[in-house]
């Protein structure tokens, strides 16, 4: 509980309009993409780096927990006030400060909505590739803190690959510039990429310098159905062997297809056991050439059907099949625990076999879909929380899934982070010496442990 005197001091730093303490106003800040609920004591809205520093210095002095927050779309509980405290919402620091066409960089504040940046740079012929499926709601600050991925990661990489430099505020109130505003730079330790993906536990990001690319001239979307996952996975390998890295290479399994079958404008063959959604981009000649090579690979891979969109409207229809998947899974069971594991791309068929075995042994549906191109698959454990026996199966199932993924050379999270939901499993992937070093780094940034406590590391 934050003491009254501390709330008054915080109010003096930002003005009364930028501090919420009343119950109804706090409500939108109690949850995130996990749908878990934890109430903060107050929410504060800094407007500048200087204010952010003043708030954090006061919080360290008075040992007030501070939980940075973007749009609250995180899928591992990173922005939740698990033990109360002060949520620091960066939503009003939302200006695009500069788009530099000469040097191909953008400077933004953390509260900029990802899609707004993409639209702004595309208007001047440039391109910001990271595209989490939440782009219309998530913030760049949240993307940086989680190192968000997205559908285009197979070709263009993840948020980390586009962050050149940051302004960050340490919990002690020190303001630090990290990285560079140039394409190269190796002076000192790479603090930029230490903060990227640190889930708001090391510092608060208050401005970001991003690398941009020229906007690709055109793109082409394709969709193919296969009788089974092995054929789809072999086709993925065959596309890569042909020297093509598609912009998008998304996979959907049989259970997911059954959930979306009735709502689709496009026909899903009754014997379809897997779907691939593919997109290539570049100049018109290259796109034509690559899409015809992909068609060859699909035919050779025994695709039951193959469609190539020739207009944006047709492409939209193909995309609908992928977009419908996640919400449609609630037809199976009322609750879903989503994992975003990664396996080496070539081991996708093995992963699907593991999921079938776990699904039948635990007697719960485990529909899977996601980024086949980079092996990052969203596995959904469908269950009914009201049913005790189903509820109690989830944790051992997750643990067994993670054990198998790690044995396959994979990782327990490709883009959603550890937060609170995966903290109990982190030691399965990172043994004690690595975790101890991370704790010492955390202590160097945050000696009093006030910034986002309870995240990543188990208390
Ligand atoms: C429908 C849906 C689809 C999604 N699809 C994807 C996807 O395709 N790929 C993907 O990677 N993720 C995806 N996500 C997850 C989520 O959108 C991302 O993790 C996103 O980056 C979170 O951004 P946010 O602004 O909502 O951050 P929040 O949820 O508010 O915060 C996330 C973390 O960042 C920290 N944080 C936020 N801002 C700052 C800051 N300025 N300084 C320091 N720390 C900060 C918080 O403390 C927290 O730990 C999806 C979520 C939803 C709901």
Biggest β-sheet: strands ordered side by side in the sheet: 15-12-14-13-17-18-16
Label the CATH architecture of the largest domain: 2-Layer Sandwich
Structural class comes to alpha+beta
Bound molecules: flavin-adenine dinucleotide
What is the molecular shape? globular
Q: What does this protein look like?
A:
This protein has helices spanning 4-14, 23-26, 49-62, 114-123, 140-146, 153-156, 191-195, 229-241, 254-260, 284-300, 312-323, 325-328, 348-362, 388-407, 426-429, 432-445; strands spanning 19-20, 42-44, 66-69, 86-89, 96-100, 105-108, 126-127, 163-169, 175-179, 204-211, 213-214, 218-226, 248-253, 274-282, 305-308, 335-342, 368-371, 376-383. Helix 1 packs antiparallel against helix 3, helix 8 crosses helix 10 and helix 13 (348-362) packs antiparallel against helix 14. It is built from 16 helices and 18 strands. The chain folds into four domains: 4-91, Uridine Diphospho-n-acetylenolpyruvylglucosamine Reductase, domain 2 (2-Layer Sandwich); 96-214, Uridine Diphospho-n-acetylenolpyruvylglucosamine Reductase, domain 3; 218-326, Alpha-Beta Plaits; 332-427, Alpha-Beta Plaits, CATH 3.30.70. The strands form four sheets. Strands 15-12-14-13-17-18-16 form a seven-stranded antiparallel sheet. A five-stranded antiparallel sheet has the order 5-6-10-8-9. A four-stranded mixed sheet has the order 1-2-4-3. 47% of the residues are buried. It starts with a helix and ends in a 14-residue tail after the last helix. It is an alpha+beta fold and 459 residues long. Flavin-adenine dinucleotide is lined by residues 32-33, 67-75, 78-79, 90, 110, 132-134, 138-139, 141-143, 145-146, 148-150, 199-200, 204-205, 415-416, 452.
